[in-house]
Protein 1
Amino acid sequence: MGTLTTRFSTIQDPDEKHKFLLNMGPQHPCTHGVLRIVLEMDGEYAMGIDPILGYGHRMHEKMAECRQWSGFYPNTGRIDYGGAIPYNHGYCALIERMAGIEVPERAEYIRVITVELNRIASHFLGVGAYVIDLGAFTPILYMFDDREDILDALEDITGSRLTYCHHRVGGVSKDIDDLFIKRTRAIIKNIRSRFDMYDRLVTGNIIFQKRTKDVGIIPVEMARRYGATGPVLRGSGLGFDIRKNEPYSVYPEFDFDIPTGENGDAFDRYMVRMLELEQSLRIIEQALDKLPDGPVMAKVKRVKLQPGDCSFSVEAARGMLTYYLVGDGSNVPYKLKIRVPSYSNLSLLEELCKGSLIADLVSAMGSLDLIIPEIDR
Amino acid sequence: MIDYYQIVAQIMFVAFILLTIIGALLSVNAKILMHSVLGLAVCLLGVAGLYFYLGSMFLSLMQIMIYVGAVCIVLVFGIMVGFTPNESAQKNDIGRNTLLGIVASGIAGLGLVITIFGKTSWETSAATVGDFSIEWIGENLLLKYCLAFELISVILLIAIVGAIILAKGGREEGL
Amino acid sequence: MDFIVDIIAKYSLVRILISFSLLIAIIMLNAIVMGYLERKICARIQRRWGPMEVGVQGWMQMFLDGVKLLAKQLIVPREANPFLFRMAPLLCFTPVAMAFAVIPFSESFYAMDLNIGLIYLLAMGSLNVFAILIAGWSSNNKYSLFGALRSVAQNVAYEIPILLSLLAVVLVTTSFNFKEIVAYQSGLLSFWMCQPVAFIIFLVAGCAETNRVPFDLPEAESELTAGYFTEYGGFSFGLFAIAEYGNLFIMSSVATTVFLGGWNGPFGLDFYSGPILGVFWFLLKVFILMLIMIWVRWTYPRVRFDQLMNLSWKYLIPFSLVNLLITAFIVKII
Amino acid sequence: MSHYFSEIFTGGKSLLVGLGVTFKALTSPVVTVQYPREKIDISPNMRGHIDLIKDSESKNGLHRCISCGLCARNCPCSCIVVKGEKQEGVKGKVLKIFTLEFSKCSLCGLCVESCPTSAIDFSDEYELAAFSREAFNFDLLKRVQQGDTK
Amino acid sequence: MIIISNNLNIYLILAAFLFAIGLYGMIRHKTLIGMLVSTELILNGAGLNFMAFNKFTAPDPAVGQIITLFIMGIAAAEAAIVVSFILAVYRKYKTSDPESLKELIG
C-alpha cells in the first residue's frame, strides 16, 4: 500500500500530534469490498476522511474501446454485481437509441419485469448488508431467502444468477414462459407477506432506529451538489427518479410512486429502499397483467456506431446510471463513459461523516449502499 | 499435620511478598509507561494477598476490586486516551533525578526501618474484640465511624463532578 | 493468619487440586457446549443447518475446532509487545477460572464456600477488563486499542448497575453467601418475582459486562474487525473465546443463584433434594439464561457507544437506585 | 418525563417483538440444503460452459458444426478456437479443433446465439473445480466424440 | 516451624519499602501518570501499615479496616480526578511532562 499516497499520509502539524491515522480497508468488514478509507482520528471521532479507490479496477471503459460493441454485453453485468440487469438494459437501450432500433413491446415488458425483479434483489442485498453493518446478522439471511426466489426465477430466464447477460440490442435473448409468470406472482405474494416481519424485526427495533435516525443527514442541497441519485437523493426528500422524470422503455404505462424521505438521514434512506420494494412489486404485477404477445427480438441488421455521441440514462438500483458513447463509424466504440451512481454517492462521504463517531461513519456509509467494484469499474 | 498446612501458607506468604516487591520495582523502573501501571497492578495484587493474611478477606477483595479493577484501569485508560498509540509506548526518561530519588527514598526508608526496629517496641494486644466479618465492619462504619463514611461519600461526589467538568471542558475545546 | 490455615485445613490440598482441575474441565466443556449451541441455535434462527459434518448433527465440530486451534502457530506481530501479547490470553482466562471456584452448583457441589462469595465473584469479574486492556494495548493495533478502550468504559459503567441490583437482593437476605441466598429462596418465592426490576437490570448489565450483542462494542465486527483480539490466532484466540463463554456462565450462574433460586427446584418443587438433582436444576437454569442471551445476540443490532453509556447512566442506574431505596424502605418497615 | 417512560415502554416492546420474530424462525423449518449430499435441481436454462450437441442425423453423424467460426469471432473473451479443414469428397469444412478455454469465458451466451446451425448449447455441468488452469481447456470435439455431452 | 506471616515487623518493613520506592518513583518519573502510579504505591504502604497495626496491636479491629477502606476510596477518587486533569492538561499543552508545563509554574 506504500505507493498510494493520501492527503493524510503523515500528520505534520505539531498541534495535531494527538491525532492519528486509521486505515479502514481495503480489507475491512464494513467497506463491502476493496474500498480503502484513510481516517484521521481524534479519539473515536473521524476528523478527516479520504476514500481511496482503485483496488478493484478492471478497466471496463477501456475494454469497451477495444472490442466490438456486442462484446461489451458480459461486462455490463459485472460492473454492479448487486443489480446487473439495469446495466444490461441501459447498454442495450443506448445502442438502440444510437442505431435507431425499435424494440418489440413484449421485449420491453420483459425488460421491465427483469429489471424490477433485479432491483428488489439488489435492495434486499443492500438493506441486509446495511443491517449487518449495524451488527445484526440475522435479517440479511431472511432477506436472502426472499432474494433466492428471485434469483431462481431470473436464472430460469436469463441463465445466470448474478452477472446476467439477458438483454440484447433489439430485445431480450430469451422469452418468458407461463411458469415464470406463475412463479413471479408467487414471489410477489410471498415478499408482500414478509414486509410485516421485516418491520417487526428491523424497522421497529429501537436499537436500529437509534442507530440510524439523525445519523448521516444529507440535506437536499448537499445531495444535489454532489450529484447523488437514487435512494440517497430520494431519502433527502427530492423525488428524482429517471423512471418518472425522464421516462424510458414502457415505464410511463405503469402506475407507481416515488417514495421519498423527510430528514435525509440513514433511516430515511433505509425506508426509501424498503418502500421501493413495494413499488417494484406493483410495477411487476402491472407488467405481468398487461404483458402483450409478440416477438421478443427485433430484426437487427449489422449495427455500425455512427460518428457522433449518444447517451442513455436508466434508473439502476442505486441511482442514475448513464452510458455515454462516442462512435466513429466502425463497430468499435470510440469511447464509452459510464456514470455510475455509487461514485457520486461515495463522494458525499467526506462531508457527511466529518467529525462523526466511527460507529456513525459505518452506519452512514452502509446507508449509502455502495458497491465498490462499480465505483472502481 | 497442621505443620504441613503452615508450610503451604508460609510459602504463599513469601510469594505474595515477592509479588509486592517485584511489582513495586517494576512500576518505578519500567521503561514503558504501560509496564509501570502493570507493575502497580501486580504490586496491588500482592498487597491484596497480604491483607488476606492480615485476616480480612473482605478488604483483600475490595483491594482487587477497587485498586486493580478500577484505579489501575483508570490509569491505563488515561494512558491510552491521552497518548496516541505511538506515544503510549514512549520510554520513561531515566536518569534525570535518579540520584536525588535514591538518596531521598533511601533516607526515608532507612529512617522508617530504624524506627521500626530501634525506637518502638510494639505491644501486641492479646485479645481482639469482635471478628473480621463484614457485618462488623458495616456496623462500625455506619455507627461508630460514621464520619469516615460521610467524608468518603463527599470526596467521591466531588471527584465525580470534578472529573466530569475537567474531561468535558477539554472535549468542547477540542471539537 | 490462622484464617488461611483454616481455609486450607477446611478444604484439604487434595480437594483444592481436584476441584481446580475439575473447574478447568468444566470451563472448557462449557465453552465447547456453548460454542456448539450458539452455532446451532444461530443457524436455526437464520433457518440454516449449522454444523452437520462431523458426528450426528455435527456435535464433534467444536472439539475438532479446538484441535485445529491448538495446532495453529501463535503469531506475534513484529511491533507488538511480545511478553504482554502472550500473557493477555492467560490473564483473561485466570480470573474466570478463579471465579468458578465459588459457583455453587448444588448444596454440596462447590469448590469453595465463601461467606462473601458474591463480592469475590464481582472482584474477579473486574479483573477481566484488565486482560482485555492488555490484549488491546499490546497488539499495537489501532482497532485493538479502540476495542480495549470501549471495553473499559463499558465495564466501569455497567459494574454499577450490577452491584446495585445485587445489593437490592442482599438487603433482603442480609448475606453475601450464596448458600444463604439460595436457602432464602427455598420456598415458593424466588427473587425474580419480588425483584423483577433488579433481575432485568442485572440481565441487561450482565449482557454488557460479558460483551455480548447488543453490547459487543469491544469486538464490534463491522467497525473494529474483531476489536481487542484482532491480532490473535491459534489457541490464544481460543482462550479468549473460552473466557468469554466462561464469563457468560458466571453471569448466568450469579443470576441463577441470586434471582432464580439456585439449585432449588422451580416453584418450590423440592421433591428430591439430593446433590445430583440440585446440579441438574442449577445447570438447567443457567443454560436457559445463556440460551436467552444467544437468542438475543442473534436478533438485535449493536448499540452505539454513547447510547450504551446513556442506557447505563440514564436508565439502569436510576432505576436500580430507586429499586434499592424502595427495597431498603420495605425491608426496614417489615 | 413522559417521553422518558414512553420510550422505555415502546423500546422494550419493540425488542420483545423482535425476539418473537426470531423465535418463530427458530421453530420453522430450515430452508438450506446440505450441498454435497443434497442437491437442488438446477434450472434447465442454466448457462454452463458450451458443448457441441450430439446429433446423429447430421451430415457427419456426430454434430452439426460447420466450422464457420462465427462463435469464435463473436466471443468477447476470445476463448473459443475453431478450426476446420477441407477434406476430399466432403462438402464444406470438417471440424478438426473445437476448444473452449473456460477459465476465460464470461458465460454471455453470444456464441450460442450466433451459431447458424444451432450446433452448440449450454451444458448443465456446474461442479467444475480443478487445481490447474489447464484443466479448464475443454476439447469440445473430443467430448462429443466420447459422448460426454447431453 | 517459624511462622513468618505472624510477625508485625515484616509487614512494617514491607510498608516502609513501598513508601520509599513510591517516593523514589515520584521523584524520578517524568510523566504525570508515572507520578500517579508512585502515589498509589505510597498509599498502599500506608494501607498495609494500618492493616498490620489493626491486626496486631489495635484493641478494636474495625478501625484499621475502615481507615484502609477510606484510603482505597481516596485513591479511587484521586485517580479519577488526576487522570481527567492529566487529560485536560494534555489537550491544552499537548504534553504530559510536568517540567514542560511552564505556564503552571506561576
Protein 2
Amino acid sequence: MSDALPIEVSSPTPLLELRGISKEFPGVKALDDVSFAVYPGEVHMLLGENGAGKSSLMKVLCGAYGADAGEFFYKGEKVAITSTADAQKLGIAVIFQEFSLVPYLDIAQNIFLGREPKGRIPGTIDRRKILADAKRVLDTIGFDIDPSTTVDKLGVAQQQMVEIAKAISQDARILVMDEPTAALSDRETELLFALIARLKADGVAIVYISHRMAEVFALGDRITVLRDGRRIDGVRPADVTPDQLVRMMVGRNVDMTYPRHFADKPGELLLEVKGLTAPTGISDINIEVRRGEIVGLCGLVGSGRSEVARAIFGADPMTSGEIIFDGKSISGEPDLAARRGIALIPESRKSEGLALLRSVSDNLVVSALRKLFPSGLFDQRRAQRTADGLIRQLRIATPSARQTVGLLSGGNQQKVVIGKWLAAGSKLFIFDEPTRGIDIGAKSEIFALIDRLVADGAAALMISSEQIEICHVCDRAYVMREGRIAGHLTRNELTEENIVRLGMHHA
Amino acid sequence: MTDISKEAIMPPRSFLSQDAIQVFYRLLAALLICAVLAVLSDSFLSLGNILNVLRQASLTFFIASGLTLVVLTAGLDLSVGANVALSACIAGTVIHKTGSPALGILTGLACGGIVGLLNGIMVTALRIPSFIATYGMLWVLNGLTYWYMAGETLHGFPAGFRQIGSGYLFGLPIPVYLLLVFLGIGTFFAQRTIWGQEIYAIGANPVAARLSGIPVARRLLLVYAVSGLMAGLASIIFLSRLNSAEADIGESLTLPAIAAVLIGGTSLFGGVGTVFGTFIGALILTLVLNGMNLLSVSANWQPLVTGIIVILAVWLDMKTRRRTQ
Amino acid sequence: DGETIAVFTKNQTNPFFQTVRVGADSMAKTLNAKTLQYIPTKPDSIPEQLSQIEDVVVKKPSAIVFTPVDYKAMVPGVEKINEAKIPVVNITDRSAGGKFLSFVGADDYSLGLETARFLLKTLGGKGNIVIIEGVKGSLTNVDRVRGFNDALKEAPGAKLLASQPGNYQRLQALQVMENLMQSNSQIDGVLAANDAMAVGAIEALDGANRKAKVIGINGTKEAIDAIKSGKLLASGDYNGFAQGCLGTMMAIRSLRNQPVISEIVLKPTVITKDNYQPFDVPLEQRTCPTFEDAGKLGAK
Amino acid sequence: MREAAVASEPNPLQRIPGVAIVLVLLIALFGAIAPGFLSVANLSNVLVQSTILTMLALPMTLIIMTEGLDLSMGAVLTLTSLCVAIVSLATKSMLLGLGAGLLVGVAFGTVNGWLVAILGIPPFVATLGTLGMAQGLSLIVSDGQSVVGIPHSVRDIYSATLVGIPVPIVMALVTYAAFHGLLYHTRFGTYIFALGGNREALRYAGLSPNRLLIAVYAIGGAMAGIAGLLMTARMNSGHPTAGLGLEFDAIAAVAVGGTSFERGNGWLLGTLLGVLSVGVLRNGLNLISLPSSVQVASVGVLVIVALFLDGLRSRA
Ligand SMILES: Nc1ncnc2c1ncn2[C@@H]1O[C@H](COP(=O)(O)OP(=O)(O)OP(=O)(O)O)[C@@H](O)[C@H]1O
Ligand SMILES: Nc1ncnc2c1ncn2[C@@H]1O[C@H](COP(=O)(O)OP(=O)(O)OP(=O)(O)O)[C@@H](O)[C@H]1O
Ligand SMILES: [Mg+2]
Ligand SMILES: [Mg+2]
C-alpha cells in the first residue's frame, strides 16, 4: 500500500520522505513496504497497535536500524541513511521510547554526549561552556534543574525531560518523539506541548508516536496509521473520529468506554493497610480493598504511589503499620505476598517485570511455578500449553511462546507481565501504570480483563497517571500527596477535577 | 482478525530447544577433538584411555557442576578450589583420627557445604558481589588450610575408602558412575524442577525474579551451598583417589572448573546454560590435556593451547547461538 | 642471647619448607634466640618476597636466614639486605648474587643424579623410564631433571619414554601418569622431581594394576611411609631439617663472633628400604647437628 | 517548576567511607602497634611496593567501568617484563626494552579489546583465554628460565630518586594524574562512563563503542607494559612467573575502592585508596610478625569488610 501522498499539504516537497521501507527480524516482518513523509512545521502523528512497527520505522529513519529495502529522500533528493551519524547530519533527532541516558554522567554531559565543547587542551572538555549550554537548553524546555546533577539521581519523569533536552539541543529539523509523555505528569506534559508549538512555529517537523487519543487530536496535523508493519492510511485529525482511528489501528471495532460491571455491593474485605509507614517516604497510609472492587490510587508523579504498592507487596521494607490480607497479617519478602495471592505489575516492565533474554513462555509461568507444578517437578510441555493459552487470551503478538520476550514490542511485553500473574491465580492485583505504553485495543482488553477478574471475586488496586482511566474503571480511589493519603473519592465523587484538586499542594 | 495475520508470521517451530542445539554443537566439537587425537595417537582410542579421560574429567565436573548453578544465577564462586583443599584436609584428619571413612565423608561434605553457605550469606545478606565475596573467601580458606596443615601432608587411608576414587565396578571406574549420577541429578535439578526454573529466572533478571515472587535470597543460598557441597564431594574423591592431601591442592582446580563451565556454554551473565554442557566442557578440557600428554607436547605450550581452546569454544558457541535464534 | 633471626622460605604448602622452618626454630631455641618466619602468602611469589625483604629491612632483625623463591630474581633483594648491613645466610637454593655469610644447601643436581642412579641400578641398567617434572623454570626442577638425564646417559640400556610436567602437584602427576600409561604399555621406572608427584604416580600405577619402580625427592614423611611399605623405591633426601638448623646456627654464631663455615653442601642421601629408620621420626623429635657434625656433613 | 534532586550530595563523597575508613583504621592500628610502621623509610616502602599494583588497578578500574574485566593483566605483565629483560639484554638499551614491553602489552590489550568488542566474547572468557596465551608465550620466550644480566639502566628505574622521591612513586603519581585527567576531563573519559552505563547512547551519538572499548583494553595492555618494566627493574631480571595472579589483586583493589561492577559506576581515587589498603595491610602484618596463615587470610577479610561497609552505606 505505497500509494502516493494521501492528502494535499502546504509545502510541495516533504522535508523527509521514506519510500517502500521493509524491515524483517527473525520471525517478524516489522515493516512491510511502508512509505512515510514529513513536512516542515507539522506534527505528524504515528499511530498503531503495540508491535505495529512504529518504533522500528523511527529507528530506520534515524539510522539505528538498517532497512532491508526502501529509499530516503531529503528535500526531494535521494539520500542514504545507514547510520545515526548520517541521520544527525540531516538534522534528525530522536527521543527514544527506551531511555538512552548514561546513569553516572551528569545532565550536561548526557545532553551533549558526542558533541562536547572542546577545551583548550586537545581531547578535553570545556566544562564551563558545557554547563552553560546545558542550562540554556534546559531553560528553553522549562526544566529547572542543576545541569551538574548526575542522571542516576533523577526520577523517570526527570529523565524524560533530559531526553527531550538532549534532542532539542541538536537544533534538529526533524524531531521524532516516541511516546514522550508516557512517563510525564500533567505539568510536564503541558511544558512539552508548549515546546512543540514553539518548534512548529520555527518550521521543525515533528513525528509523534502516542497511544493517547487526546494527544492525537490536540497536537496532530496529520496522522499515519500502521498495522502489522504495513501502512494502513494517512488522514487529518479533522476528518476522522477516534472510533474510526481505532478501527484503522486494530482492524475491528473497539469499545473505548471501558465498560465496567460495577459491583452493587462490595464483597468482603481483602486488603487492609493500617498506618503503613516506610523509609521510602510514605507515612500513615490507610487503605482498604474489598473483593470485586477496583480501587484507584492517584496523585502526582512523586507522590509515593509506587512506594505504597511496593511496600504492600513486600518489595520495600516498612518501618511501622500493618498489612492484613485475607484476614491474616503479612510482612516479609515478595515471595510471601505472592504466595498469599498478591500480584504486583511493576512500573518498569523492562527492569522489574521481565527477564528480557528468556522466552515468553518462561516469563509467563515464572510466578505460577508452584501452582502449576505442585509436585515441584517442572514440565516444559505443560508450561508451554499454559503460555499458549495466555498468549491467546491476552492476544500477545509474538511469533511463538519460544520467542525471546525482549524482542516483543513494549505493549506486548506489558501483557506478558500481567499474564504471569493471571497464571499464578492471584487474588489482589496491584497495577502500577498498567497501560503505560499500551495501545488502545490492548488497553480496553486489559480493562475488560481486570473487570472479569474482579467480577470473579478478585480485587485490584490501580495506579495510573491517566486520570480518565481511573474515573472510567475504578469503584473508588485514594488520592496521594507527598507520601500521605490526601483523600478518598467514592464512585460518585470520582472526577478528574476532584483528583487534581486533592492531589495538588494547595488543596 | 489480527490473530490470523500474526499466526502467519510465526516461523515453523524448531523441534529442538536452543539448549539442546548448543549441547549438540559441543558434542560435535568434542568428537572432532577425539577424531584428531585418534589420528595423531594410536593409544587414544583404547578403552583404557577413554575410561581414563572420563575419570579425569569427573573431578573437574564435580566442582564445575555446582559452579554451573552459581554461574546460572549470574554469580561466580572463586573459592571452590580452596574449599576442596580445606574440606579434603579436614575430612582426611577425621578419617585418621576416628578411623571411620563415613564420618570423614560427612565432615568433608559438611565443611564444603558450610563454606558454600557462608558464600551465599555474603552474597545475599551482606550484598557483596559474588566475584569479590568468594575471592575474599578464597584467601580466608587458604589461610585456614595453611594454618591447619602447617606444611604437612595427610596420607594413607583405609582401602575401602580408597575404592571410591580408584575402584572399579563391572569394569568401569567408580568415579565414572558418580559422574553419571551427578550429571543426571544436576540436569534433572536444573531442567525438571521448579527450583531449577527459578534459578534460571534469577540469573536472567534478579529484580524481576524477586518481584515475581521467587524467594531469591533463599535460592541463592541454596545454589552457593550446593556449589560448596559439590566442592566437598570433589574433596572426598580427591582424597580417596590420591590417598593423600595437602594445603595447596586447590590452586590448580578453580580455573579449569570455571573454564569447563564457560566452554560448556553457560553464560556469565546468568540465565543461560546447562549442566550437561558443563560436562562436555570438562570433557573437552581433559581431552586436550590428555592429548598433549599422549603426544608429549612440551609443557611450555600447554597454557597457550588451553587459552586458545577456551576462546574458540565460546566464540563458536556465540556464532551458533546467533544463527539459530 | 635473644637475637631475632628472620627466616625466609618459599611457601607454606610444601612439606619440605616446613622441615626447614622446624629445624631453624629448633636450633634457635637451643641457642636462646628467636625466629620470625617470612613466607609469601602466594606460594613462590617473587614480588611478595621482595616486599617482605623491604619490610624486614625496616624491622632490622639481628640476622637473616634466606631461601630465595627464585635464585636469580631475588638478587636485588639480597643486595638490599647487604646494604642494610644485616648478616644473611643463604640456604637451600644458591642465590645468583649478593654477599652471604655462609651457604647451606644441598646439590639438586647430584640429588637427581644419585636417586636416578639408584633406580637404574635396581632395574639392572635397562628398562623404559618416564620423568615427571616439577614447575618449569624453577632452579630445583632444572637441576634435578638434569641429574635424572645424566644418570640415564650412563645407562645405555634404559630408554626415556617421555618427560612431562606435573608442576610438583600430586593430582597433575597422577593424571600425567595415567595418560602416559595409555601410550606406553611397558613402563619400568618413574623419576619424579618431588615426593608428592612420586606418590601421585604410584596411585596411578596402583589404579591400573601396573608395577613400576618409582623414586621421588625430598624425604618427606609420606615418602618414608611409602618406602617402608615397599611402594616407593627411594627418595633423595634434601635434609631440610639440617639446612634449617645449620643456616640458623651459622647466623647466630656470626653474631656471637664465633667461627662459621662458609659453605656446607649436604651430601645427598638416597633413602631406601635399608636406611630409612633415622628419617622415620617426627620432626619435633629430631635433633639438630652440632657444629662439629656440620664440619663433617659437607664442608668443602 | 523546580525539581528537587533526590540526593544532592556529590557522588564521590557518598562512597568515600568504605575504603577510606578501612585505610585510616589500618594506618592508626599499625601506627600504634607496629614499631617502625610510621617511619619515613617504611611508608616509602609501602608506597613503592604499591606502584606496580597501582599501574594495573587504574586501567582495571576503567575496564571494569565498561562492565568488563581483564584477567590477563598479570600474565601479560609477566610477558612484557620478560620482553623488557630480553630486549634490553640484547640491545643494552632500557628504552628499547620499554618499547618492546609496551608493544607487546598494547598488542595483547588490543587483542583483548578485539575479542570483547568485535567478536563479542564476554570479557571474563576472552581474557581468561589470553591469560593462558600470555602465560604460554612467557614460558616459550624464556624457555622457563630467568633472564638475567640486564643493563643497570633498567634496574636504576626502581632504585633511583627524583628530588628525593623514589622514581616508582613519581611514576605512579604521574599515572594517577593522567588517569584522573583522562577519566574526568576528556571526551574519551566521558565515553568510558557511557560504555558501561549505556552503550546504545554512544551509538546514537554517532560514536563507535567498539573502537572505544578496544582503546580501553589497549590502555590496560600499555599499563601492563610499563608495569612490566618496573617489575623487571625490581627483580633486576625477567622471570616467567613473576606477575601471575596480580590481576586478582588489582580487581580486589578496584572493588575495595568502591567501583561497582555495573552501569559504569567507577571511582579512581577509591582504587588508589584500595591499593594502599592492601599495601598497608601486608606491610603492617609483616612488621608485627603475625603467623603467615593470618596474613594469607587477611586480604580476604579486608576485601569482605570493605565491601560490607560499602553495602551498609548504600542501604542506609
Ligand atoms: N530487534 C528486534 N529483533 C526482533 N524483533 C523486533 C526487534 N525490534 C522490534 N521487533 C519486532 O518488530 C515488531 C515491531 O516492533 P516496534 O517496536 O516497532 O513496535 P511499536 O509499534 O513501537 O510498538 P509499541 O507501541 O508497543 O512500542 C514487533 O513485533 C517487535 O516484536
Ligand atoms: N519528593 C520528591 N522530590 C523529588 N523526586 C522525588 C520525590 N519523591 C519521589 N521522587 C522521585 O520521583 C520518581 C517518581 O516518584 P514515585 O515513583 O515515588 O512516585 P509515584 O507516585 O509512584 O509516581 P509515578 O508512579 O507516577 O512515577 C521516583 O524516581 C522518585 O525517586
Ligand atoms: Mg514502540
Ligand atoms: Mg511510580
